[in-house]
Design a protein that fits this description.
Keywords: Disulfide bond, Signal
CATH topology: Thrombin, subunit H
Pfam families: Trypsin (PF00089)
Strand content: 25-35%
Helix content: under 10%
GO cellular component, one term: extracellular region
Number of domains: 1
CATH class: Mainly Beta
InterPro entries: Peptidase_S1_PA, Peptidase_S1_PA_chymotrypsin, Peptidase_S1A, Trypsin_dom, TRYPSIN_HIS
GO molecular function, one term: serine-type endopeptidase activity
Radius of gyration: 16 Å
Number of strands: 13
Largest sheet: 7 strands, antiparallel
Amino acid sequence: MNILPSTLYLHSLFLGVTGDKIIDGKEAKPHSRPYMAFLHIGKVGKICGGFLIHPNFILTAAHCQRQNINVLLGAHDFSKNEESQQVIPVEAIIPHKCFDNLTLANDIMLLKLKYRANITHAVKTIRIPKRDEDFSICKCSVAGWGYAKTNGNDNSVLREVKVRVDFLCYFFLNSPQNKYFIFQGDSGGPLACHGILNMPTAVGIVSYASKGCDDPQSIAYIRVSAYWDWIQMTIKKYSAA
């Protein structure tokens, strides 16, 4: 069995991606990504993305951890009081035990919600891949509420970037015609690809970029399948608590 690395380095030479903000993407169709979670973090007002993988659990990046996280589900425009929205406090913040805040190794975290999300047309879970699941030649996308322009204002509506992944989508995003960017505010969101039975699958977690916007080099995603066992064991442990 091949041992795949836990971090995906997706080079901007092919994609034009840097940081954790979507620039020049497009507004997503409202509630077309019902698994998306908006994380409002602490008193500083920091935001991150995340995604619902279980009615009680959000998966996101460990570098988003702070005290007092509230999760907003079912949102398209978080600045509005949409009827579809559900605001749920986080009961337990569970970063991977080997997370390194300096290198961002093992940049993955589960959030246990204080109470179960109500599954509706606007709030649904997304599947995650098993350790040995293959994704060769697939269509993927990234979405979030991060800034929509370099040095711009906050973006309150969900935006998305669609990319085509060729060869082994774990390693290369081959889409030279798409010059989109991901930057501040979108950390923790999913790299979503079509998996088994064409179902949306969270293949990666937006982690970081090695260069700034003026010198785009590469963006790193955390490979979700590498943490399949940890995710399942953690959910089981905290569900029994």
